[in-house]
UniProtKB/TrEMBL annotation:
<dbReference type="GO" id="GO:0019005">
    <property type="term" value="C:SCF ubiquitin ligase complex"/>
</dbReference>
<dbReference type="Pfam" id="PF25372">
    <property type="entry name" value="DUF7885"/>
</dbReference>
<protein>
    <recommendedName>
        <fullName>F-box/LRR-repeat protein 15-like leucin rich repeat domain-containing protein</fullName>
    </recommendedName>
</protein>
<dbReference type="InterPro" id="IPR006553">
    <property type="entry name" value="Leu-rich_rpt_Cys-con_subtyp"/>
</dbReference>
<dbReference type="InterPro" id="IPR032675">
    <property type="entry name" value="LRR_dom_sf"/>
</dbReference>
<dbReference type="InterPro" id="IPR057207">
    <property type="entry name" value="FBXL15_LRR"/>
</dbReference>
<dbReference type="GO" id="GO:0031146">
    <property type="term" value="P:SCF-dependent proteasomal ubiquitin-dependent protein catabolic process"/>
</dbReference>
<feature type="domain" description="F-box/LRR-repeat protein 15-like leucin rich repeat">
    <location>
        <begin position="7"/>
        <end position="402"/>
    </location>
</feature>
Length: 466
């Protein structure tokens, strides 16, 4: 928790060159006292002008706090008028009496140079029976008013706006010509109408993330396929997306990350994907129950084996040892392989993975992440395969809970101190918002500046929804 006593020091020593500030676990009231000049104590040797100079230099601010309110938004946007990035995440324990409303959203207009806007309400806590945490006082009107300003916005990330409909969301796509990243986290009311007539919009979307948007169907995906610059598409648990949408995506020439977890796709969709020329690096098919061995192995044909590095086959009954061996034989250089809850996987599969080569050496190939959590088909014999020199590049390993023992865990840690071993039934819970944020900066910072890998986004979505 941020110590409120540091305000007196911070307000006097804030350097004029300060461009970015990030604070986690801070109260909304403390933030107001930090940036509202009327709260700053006067001193004999410092004038208010010095404080204003220090704060006005800020261009990027990221806060994880208890509650986002109208007052907080007003203080931040009126004091930090040169902001280019505003990133706020809250998680109130109880319904706040003073909550963010349309008026607070409208205050964003004070920051004319804003390029990045992220407003997310966490969903890890419940407010009681029949209640879910959300910004209930913000509706389409708030977004319509916001759309009249900040025309340079390139990144919009929203989460927990339960009263906002397709009208408000489509308004964002229509009014921000420079928009490249559009993420809606935990907004289940989003439907195909949000993406109606995408050809007519002037924005060139690079990243679209719609996790758990149950009303999104293949019609919306067909519209998104008109975005020729699209590189990352997260449709995790959009359960109405089917083969028609996947076929439309196969014509995208720049798509590199695709999350289809829980989608209603079949082997025909994967066959269409295998015939595409897209430079797909990451693919998640987690919980796509209609897939069979034939569809999965179709991914080993065409150009995909030369580009794919991350695969998530978790919770797929069709995945067997033969399926995994088909990918090994294709020469695919996998970095991240998720096989959680694949009950047909056995010791033979792990042995085959350990035999992979990278650049003609290094047993275990290029694998850095291997998830075998909850796989009852593997035995203790596989533990010997994770000793040196096998899996030389491994950084994270998920193992079934029935293999856990203090003696074995100690031995593995002693031999592989740089490898993180997980014996939990739900490894997603080990990730934190902070970890994911840092990973997303490292992963996408060079190329487009934003976006998580599909694994990270899916894990973040799970965290936000508890």
């Amino acid at each position: 928790m941020f110590d409120g006593q540091v305000f007196r020091i911070l307000s006097t020593v804030c350097p004029p060159s300060l461009r970015a500030l990030r604070i986690i676990n801070i109260n909304e009231g403390d933030i107001r006292r930090l940036f509202d000049l009327s709260f700053i104590p006067s001193t004999d040797h410092l004038t208010p002008d010095i404080h204003v100079t220090g704060y006005s230099s800020l261009q990027k601010i990221s806060l994880v706090l208890d509650t986002i309110t109208d007052t907080l938004m007003c203080v931040l946007t009126s004091t930090l008028v040169n902001l280019t990035e505003l990133d706020l995440l809250d998680d109130p324990v109880v319904p706040p009496q003073a909550d963010l409303s349309n008026w607070g959203i409208q205050q964003i207009a004070n920051c004319q140079n804003l390029k990045v806007l992220s407003l997310i309400r966490g969903r890890s806590k419940s407010w009681g029976r029949g209640q879910s945490s959300s910004f209930r006082r913000v509706n389409d009107l708030g977004l319509l008013l916001m759309a009249e300003s900040c025309k340079d916005l390139e990144i919009v990330r929203l989460g927990g706006f339960s009263q906002v409909t397709d009208t408000g969301l489509h308004c964002i796509l229509e009014n921000y010509p420079h928009l490249r990243v559009f993420e809606l986290i935990g907004m289940k009311q989003t439907s195909d109408l949000t993406f109606h007539d995408m050809v007519a919009t002037s924005c060139s979307l690079v990243v679209v993330s719609l996790p758990a948007a149950n009303q999104i169907t293949s019609d919306a995906v067909v519209q998104l396929a008109s975005c020729s610059q699209l590189k990352l598409l997260n449709l995790a648990f959009c359960r109405s997306v089917g083969d028609r949408g996947l076929k439309a995506l196969s014509y995208l020439s720049k798509l590199s990350l695709l999350d289809l977890s829980g989608a209603d796709i079949t082997d025909f969709g994967l066959i269409s994907l295998s015939k595409s020329s897209m430079p797909l690096v990451s693919l998640s098919l987690r919980s796509c129950k209609r897939l069979t061995h034939n569809g999965i192995t179709a991914l080993t044909r065409g150009s995909l084996p030369y580009t794919l590095q991350e695969l998530d086959f978790s919770n797929l009954p069709c995945i067997t040892d033969l399926s995994v061996m088909a990918f090994i034989e294709s020469g695919m250089q996998l970095i991240d392989l998720r096989l959680r809850d694949c009950y047909a996987i056995s010791d033979e599969c792990v042995a085959a993975l350990a035999s992979m080569n990278y650049a003609g050496k290094d047993h275990g190939g290029s694998l850095r992440v291997l998830d075998l959590s909850n796989n009852i088909g593997v035995s203790r014999k596989i533990l010997n395969l994770f000793q040196k020199p096998c899996f030389a590049r491994l950084e994270w390993l998920g193992l079934p809970k029935h293999l856990k023992s203090e003696v074995m865990a100690t031995r593995l840690h002693d031999q592989r101190p740089r490898v993180h071993f997980s014996f939990t039934t739900n490894p997603d819970k080990e990730f934190s918002y902070d970890t994911l944020s840092s990973k997303h900066r490292d992963h996408w910072g060079v190329e487009i500046g934003v976006g998580l890998s599909f694994h990270q986004r899916c894990d973040l979505c799970a965290l936000m929804q508890g």
